[in-house]
């Protein structure tokens, strides 16, 4: 990684951040999910309604949801 340091600051190129950020996010999600208790949303909540709409759109072919492999294999 090329870095420039001035007065307590480090500059890192955006392209150099992608891989470490993906690893951190993956690790943190894995840790969070390993500790997570089962979760259920209230069917009357806006989040639940949005998820239902996304599922309907996906089943109707109006959107394409990416697989885990497509998301994480970059």
| Number of separate strands | 2
Distance between the termini: 19 Å
**Share in β-strands:** 5-15%
Task: Briefly note the structural class of the backbone.
Answer: mainly alpha
Helix content, binned percent: 55-70%
What is the mean predicted local confidence, pLDDT? 84
User: Largest beta sheet, briefly?
Assistant: 2 strands, antiparallel
Order of helices and strands: EEHHH
Q: What radius of gyration results from the CA coordinates?
A: 19 Å
Point out poorly predicted stretches. none
Q: Would you write up a description of this structure?
A:
There is one protein chain. By secondary structure, the chain is mainly α. Helices cover 55% and strands 11% of the residues. The protein has a two-stranded antiparallel sheet with strand order 1-2. The longest helix is centred in the first third of the chain and has 22 residues, at 14-35. 0% of the residues are buried. The mean pLDDT is 84.
């Amino acid at each position: 990684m090329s870095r420039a340091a001035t007065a307590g600051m480090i500059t890192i190129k955006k392209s150099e951040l992608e891989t470490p950020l993906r690893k951190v996010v993956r690790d943190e999600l894995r840790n969070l999910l390993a500790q997570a208790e089962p979760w259920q949303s209230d069917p009357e909540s806006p989040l639940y309604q949005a998820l239902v709409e996304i599922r309907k759109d996906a089943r109707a072919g109006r959107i394409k949801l990416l697989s885990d492999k497509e998301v994480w294999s970059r």
